[in-house]
Amino acid sequence: MATKKKRIANTPLKKVQQNKLIAGVLVLLFVITGILIIYKSFAGSITIFHDNPDFWRDKIGYCESGGRYDRIGPSGHTGKYQYDVGTWRGAVGPDLAAQYPQAYLAPGDVQELAFTNTFARRGTQPWNASYHCWIKGTTVPASAEEQISSVFQAPAAVVVSPPAKPFGVTSGEYNVIINGRVTLNDAPLPNVTLATCSADRIATTDADGRFAFGVPVNNTFCLRPTGGIPAGARLTRTSNNVEHAADLTFENQIAGINCYRQFWCFLGGSYTWDRNRDTGYNFFYTSP
Known about the structure:
3 domains; Lysozyme; alpha+beta; Immunoglobulin-like
């Protein structure tokens, strides 16, 4: 009889303990889910560069492996660019993969070929985990004016490296090139001036109606036409995000970062304003 009473008395206590355990597990799952959402949002806000693989080649290689072709990483990734087996096979093809099953077994020229092939398909995206390493300290010996001129004078097949000091702003980080076009009745509109909200600098369209300027990564900028628009011309549309299709300017833009509808940027003004790429800031005017 005493044993039965003891069991009855212990039953509520066991239920309380079980409920606490279940609650703890649910809280833990909630926290883990939140962390994953934030991480995914942050990863999605990283700009993926698709141009000029040779500009990024050694920077990424240094951050991934210290530039060592024989590097074997702790997670099974190997070689200068830290390939896993599956990605490596896709990068070099079945014949070379059969000869060199893992990246660290291949000579340098084969690993460089793999990087070129991967970059052509996916840009810098496979190396986003080391983004904050290879994005820093990248400068090239060119002025902003030379860079902007070369964007419009070089053949289409030539990819131009970013300037070292856009608008004289010294930066130890990658300088993002912002560009766009202004047209009137679908024809180029030259000599239009645009405020950039970047060190009080002004961008001006060329004979083809195009403009370009450099901004250090993660810096904010805007685009506001301030002069050169013919009297009577009316701005009919821009390439703004859908939430701001009716707006006449581009505001709350962030260079080199995609904040558009990213959880990471939810509380900032860039959440709906920031475009997912730093090119194609276009203004379309019409006149009677």
